[in-house]
């Protein structure tokens, strides 16, 4: 189980805040990654080592699991699922996502050194040895697979393993550096949590969780491209061909609007397919209208020639986080009030 790493997907922190300078590419004279010297040149403190390993797992990105896994479990159970099962699924899912994120850090450490937002991560500042990080990721992956298999079920375990393998080999190693459509198809890895949550409850795959899967699939590109518009120079400096690097802001905004509209339409399809009550479609419609409105605003600013901070892509980025949370929480609450 993994959420695709767009370096700031679940929410932004100091690394990806919209309050920094708009030009974030690393110029020839800009400093490289800083090393964290230890006081007195001695051995690193245990707390620093633990913090570095936790940083490799990208805990803020793992938060997406809570947003998309637990509501799928409530919807599958048509009420409150077994709380032990919820806890076991989340533990296994967090281990799986942590494993995938660690491997992503290892494989992308050269990119992270070039990007100002990410050069403070553990590997660029040499807080963790790459071989140790690889071993850490492998241990987490094995634990996740076994835990989900024995504590939940093997279907959920295999789905989580498949998502991680696709994220590491399909997205990180194959797509990310080769195509501007990297996040479109690579984003599939981040769509698995609803499937995993649903199968944890039912033991089988049905149509309804695939609608949840599709919501995340179509939501990911506009969410990610909004962030990439803000940090276009960062991605360009690292030679990552994100769509805003290779296309104009207007062309990107058009695609963001198109994907946003499709996201809203797909979200409304859950109403008849899952047989939800009135709450879910009402929330999905209102939140979706706001998402489309923000996308239209971004397109207008792009067509007016606005760039960088004036384009305000982070407004859409932050709202898209709220949109996904509102839609999935509504899906969880809906069966409780019927």
TrEMBL record:
One of its GO terms (molecular function) is protoheme IX farnesyltransferase activity. Residues 1-44 are annotated as: Disordered. The keyword Cell membrane applies. Keywords: Cell membrane, Heme biosynthesis, Membrane, Transferase, Transmembrane, Transmembrane helix. It is found in: Cell membrane. GO terms for cellular component: plasma membrane. The chain crosses the membrane at residues 61-77, 83-107, 128-148, 154-175, 182-201, 207-231, 252-273, 279-299, 320-337. CDD domains: PT_UbiA_Cox10. Pathway: Porphyrin-containing compound metabolism; heme O biosynthesis; heme O from protoheme: step 1/1. It catalyses: heme b + (2E,6E)-farnesyl diphosphate + H2O = Fe(II)-heme o + diphosphate. It comes from the Bacteria. One of its GO terms (biological process) is heme O biosynthetic process. Pfam families: UbiA (PF01040). It is a multi-pass membrane protein. Its EC number is 2.5.1.141. Converts heme B (protoheme IX) to heme O by substitution of the vinyl group on carbon 2 of heme B porphyrin ring with a hydroxyethyl farnesyl side group. Belongs to the UbiA prenyltransferase family. Protoheme IX farnesyltransferase subfamily. Carbon 2 of the heme B porphyrin ring is defined according to the Fischer nomenclature. This is Protoheme IX farnesyltransferase. It comes from Microlunatus kandeliicorticis. The lineage of its organism: Bacteria, Bacillati, Actinomycetota, Actinomycetes, Propionibacteriales.
């Amino acid at each position: 189980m993994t959420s695709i790493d767009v370096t700031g997907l679940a929410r932004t922190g100091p690394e990806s805040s919209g309050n920094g300078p708009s030009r974030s590419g690393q110029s020839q004279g800009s400093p490289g990654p800083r090393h964290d010297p230890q006081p007195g040149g001695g051995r690193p403190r245990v707390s620093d080592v633990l913090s570095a390993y936790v940083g490799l797992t990208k805990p803020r990105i793992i938060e997406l699991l809570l947003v998309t896994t637990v509501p799928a479990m409530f919807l599958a159970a048509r009420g409150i699922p077994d709380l032990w099962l919820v806890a076991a699924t989340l533990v296994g899912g967090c281990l799986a996502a942590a494993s995938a994120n660690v491997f992503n850090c290892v494989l992308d450490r050269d990119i992270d050194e070039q990007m100002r937002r990410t050069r403070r991560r553990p590997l660029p500042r040499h807080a963790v040895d790459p071989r140790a990080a690889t071993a850490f990721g492998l241990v987490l992956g094995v634990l996740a697979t076994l835990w989900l298999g024995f504590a939940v079920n093997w279907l959920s375990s295999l789905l989580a393993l498949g998502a991680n393998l696709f994220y590491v080999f399909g997205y990180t190693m194959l797509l990310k550096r080769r195509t501007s459509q990297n996040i479109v198809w690579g984003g599939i890895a981040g769509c698995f949590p609803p499937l995993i949550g649903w199968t944890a409850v039912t033991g089988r795959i049905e149509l309804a969780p695939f609608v949840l899967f599709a919501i995340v699939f179509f939501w990911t590109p506009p969410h990610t491209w909004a962030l990439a518009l803000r940090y276009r120079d960062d991605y360009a400096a690292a030679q990552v061909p994100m769509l805003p690097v290779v296309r104009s802001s207007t062309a990107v905004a058009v695609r963001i609007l198109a994907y946003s509209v499709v996201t809203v339409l797909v979200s409304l399809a859950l109403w008849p397919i899952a047989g939800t009550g009135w709450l879910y479609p009402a929330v999905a419609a209102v939140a979706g209208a706001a998402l489309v409105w923000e996308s239209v605003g971004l397109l207008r600013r792009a067509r007016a020639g606005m760039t960088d901070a004036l384009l305000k892509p982070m407004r859409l980025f932050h709202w898209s986080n709220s949109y996904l949370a509102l839609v999935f929480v509504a899906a969880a609450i809906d069966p409780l009030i019927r």
